[in-house]
Automatic annotation (TrEMBL):
Belongs to the neutral ceramidase family. It catalyses: an N-acylsphing-4-enine + H2O = sphing-4-enine + a fatty acid. GO terms for biological process: ceramide catabolic process; long-chain fatty acid biosynthetic process; sphingosine biosynthetic process. InterPro entries: Ceramidase_alk, NEUT/ALK_ceramidase_N. This is Neutral ceramidase. Binds 1 zinc ion per subunit. It comes from Gimesia alba. The keyword Cell membrane does not apply. Its cofactor is Zn(2+). The lineage of its organism: Bacteria, Pseudomonadati, Planctomycetota, Planctomycetia, Planctomycetales. Zn(2+) binds at residues 113, 214. Transmembrane segments: none annotated.
């Protein structure tokens, strides 16, 4: 009997530390290479007139699936892509739900918005002058992309194991407000949010990090994750066996500075990686459950659309992109009988108990949204991400809308909208966020 007692005590001492470190979570992770097998057209810069010519480093889709003690789950998927459409994200969500039971509302898909990734079908489609051959290649890639996104979420959901989560923040200073090309006095957020995933022994399995800045350091003709890709490469080299995932913030009006060369993209990536390293090498705040996930849409109205007579008068006028928009809107009138008067904007909120609230905003949101949400939720720890689930247009704040310019409405023509949005767009977004955040 004494030997049995001693054996049990010894076993308890051996296992107790691991049990304590296991925390409140099970986390699964997976990755899949989404680099096109063909050299297809690159997205992001309308001025490009030829497809990709090579690869600097692979483009990835990476997934984390979280499960709390009650069995509630959420998936966060990061991608080295220019953007996704609502149609693609919803199709992926439907297929994942059938395979795993994880619903569409429980899946957050974020795009790094690298301008050195392939055109994604339906994302800013009026920006590109594509031949039928190039269009077919993009359609084929979209099918492969959906398959890969489903695959990475399913694989992550099948690899759940005990884990603990912790959170911290650091800073990187290469982002600059780009309103008027370079605006050093404009608002910008240099915060680097970091979520660390540890296994029961305390070893880091994954690190999710963010930054609010366009991935536009380079405009080359090779597939590349830009600074965000280089940051992930650097972190995975620093911590072998750890998966690094980048989630872009509200960087609609921020650019890397300086920019223009591959060396600068790597420099900014290393700078961001160093910020993450500083964060994970210091004590972080534990993140507990339970997990709550909500997703909802609200209509953001556009100004009154042009009439058919007005569009007919505009034919052949303006730059090539304005002419494409006129033709597109006339086709929309003929086929659907009306021009869209609003867009169903999405907000997704993932709450990790009272310890962390992740707010995912659709579209290319400007930094004012993150600044305001941090002010209005100053009593809680929040992480605001843009470019979530779909990149359908820029989403200006009220200030940017009044100022106009590219982010204020000038870029709408690339996305197929007459625009701009009506005043009140910012309040509609903020009110929806408040309705989804559990007190």
């Amino acid at each position: 009997m004494l030997r049995l007692v001693l054996f049990c005590l010894t076993a308890l001492l051996v296992w107790a530390p691991s049990m304590l470190l296991a925390g409140d979570w099970k986390v699964g992770m997976a990755r899949v290479d989404i680099t096109p097998t063909k050299k297809i057209w690159l997205g992001g810069y309308a001025s490009r007139k030829k497809p990709a010519e090579g690869t600097t480093h692979p483009l990835w889709a990476k997934a984390l699936v979280f499960e709390d003690k009650q069995g509630s789950r959420a998936a966060i998927v990061t991608t080295d892509l220019i953007g996704l459409t609502r149609e693609i994200s919803d199709a992926v969500g439907k297929r994942v739900a059938q395979k795993t039971g994880i619903t569409r509302e429980q899946i957050l898909l974020n795009c790094s918005h690298t301008h050195s990734s392939p055109v994604v079908l339906g994302c800013a489609s009026l920006a590109y002058d594509l031949s039928p051959v190039h269009q077919k290649e993009i359609e084929d890639y979209a099918k492969q992309l959906q398959d890969n996104l489903v695959k990475v979420i399913v694989e992550a959901s099948q690899s759940l194991s005990d884990a603990s989560l912790s959170y911290g923040e650091e800073r990187a200073t290469f982002a600059i407000n780009r309103r008027g090309r370079i605006n050093p006095d404009g608002p910008v957020d240099h915060t680097v949010p970091v979520l660390r995933v540890n296994d029961p022994t305390g070893k880091m399995r994954a690190v999710l990090f963010g930054y609010a800045c366009h991935n536009t350091t380079i405009a080359l003709f090779k597939y590349c994750g830009d600074y965000a890709g280089f940051a992930q490469v650097a972190l995975e080299k620093k911590y072998p066996g750890t998966m690094a995932l980048f989630m872009i913030g509200c960087g609609g009006d921020a650019n890397p500075d300086p920019r223009g060369t591959l060396a600068l993209a790597e420099q900014h990536g290393n700078s961001l990686a160093e910020a993450v390293i500083r964060a994970v090498d210091q004590p972080l705040e534990p993140i507990h459950g339970p997990l709550t996930v909500k997703m909802k849409r609200t209509d953001l109205p556009f100004v009154a659309p042009p009439t058919k007579a007005e569009l007919l008068k505009q034919q052949g006028k303006g730059d090539v992109y304005s002419q494409r928009l006129t033709k597109y809107l006339l086709n929309q009138l003929d086929e659907q009988g009306a021009i869209a008067t609003s867009y169903p904007f999405s907000v997704q909120v993932i709450q990790f108990g009272d310890d962390l609230t992740l707010i995912g905003l659709g579209g290319e949101t400007v930094i004012d949204y993150s600044i305001r949400l941090h002010e209005e939720f100053s009593d809680r720890r929040i992480w605001v991400a843009g470019y979530c689930n779909e990149v359908f247009a820029y989403v200006p704040s009220e200030r940017v809308l009044k100022e106009g310019g590219y982010e204020g409405g000038g870029a709408m023509k690339y996305f197929g909208f007459h625009g701009p949005f009506k005043p009140g767009v910012e309040d509609r977004v903020i009110q929806l966020v408040h309705s989804l955040v559990t007190p």
